[in-house]
Structure formats: structure tokens, C-alpha cells
Amino acid sequence: MPDPLLPRRDDTLAFSQDLTAERMIEAYPQGIFPYYAFKDKFVRWCAPRERYVIFPDEIHISHSMRNIMNRNIYRVTINENFEEVIWACAKVDGRIFEDGAWLGPELIKIWIELHRRGYAKSVEVWNEDNELVGGLYGFAHGGCFMGDSMFSKEKDTSKLALITLAKHMQAQGGKFIDCQYYTGHLATMGGRTISYKSFLEMAEDTTPLNW
User: Fold this and answer.
1) Band (102; pLDDT cuts 50, 70, 90)
2) 85 Cβ partners below 8 Å, 6+ apart?
3) What is the CATH number for 162?
4) How far apart are CA 170 and CA 45, in angstroms?
């Protein structure tokens, strides 16, 4: 990978035609992630010069979310069914059929391999009928979690997954959840922008969390 701190026009760092678990393991701790338009068969490696992150102790829990949590209508687990989570992220609302869709079978296969090797983690939200209705997954590196995608099949279940992740990390002194880019959804959860340099400095701590 090129040095991500070198000057460049935009968030694009490099292009490649191959995508492997080894490249992902090299890239994610440096804040580099692939945008793989699987229908076009090319990989664009991105490294935003500003990162949108959530610090675990800054996670915002709204009044409505507290009500949902207090009602105990959902069961939340960690690493109980990674494969079902990633396929749900790919397919929910027809995402996989959209132009420029990036989460296709080849990339999913690599993420499943990363999970098998202990790098990729998931959070699952189950309803009272034991159906998977929300969740997220990403790359775990030391005290950091590089989020890749999330989904909801019932209202606010992805938020519940994110809150659970933040609390899990907070209890162990986790550093941050990397959200990559700003979205209004993440802003309501307490996200904020940090410099790429700050991102790399915090990512240097490789002490693993207990998953």
C-alpha cells in the first residue's frame, strides 16, 4: 500500500484488481478500506484524511432508545452469527442489486475468512421470535473497531447493535469505533470527526479487547 500520509487529491489511495484477506489485514489497521464495486470488478482503496468516529464513552443514547432497552424486547449477542449478519447487510432493502453495490459474494467470502481467523466481529440483534432483525460487523484491531456495515429490519435495531458495541468496548477501555464517513444517523449517536493522524496514533495500541 502507498503511504496514506502522502499528499493526494482525494480519499482514493490506490486501485487494484485483487482483493485478499491478507490485503485487508494489512490495510484496516492503517485506516485503509476497500470500495469493491463487485459488478465492475475493480477495487478502490480509500483512506479518508478525516475520520468520523464514535468514542465508546461518548455514545449517545436517546430517550426513545432507553425505552427500547428497558423493555427488553430484543436479545443482543456478539459473534453469534457473523455470516447471517453480513449477508443481511448485503441484501437488506435490495442493496446488493443497486448500481455500485460493494458487498457481493467475493468480498463476503473474504470477510467470513477474516472472522474465522479472529479479525472480523459482529453484533446481532434478535427479536422475541429469535429472528435476526439488526446488526453490524467490522474489523477489530487492538482497542479499535473499524465498522464496515450495519442493517435494521425493525426500527432502531442497528442503533441498539451500535450501543451494545460501544458499551462492550467502554468496559474494556476501547479506543474508538471507526465509522469512516459522516452520516446524519451516526451524528445522532455521538459521532465526531478526528484527523487521520489522530486515528493512526490511537490505532497503534494493539492490546486486544476480549470478544
Assistant:
1) confident
2) 122, 123, 124, 132, 135, 136, 137, 151
3) 3.40.630.70
4) 30
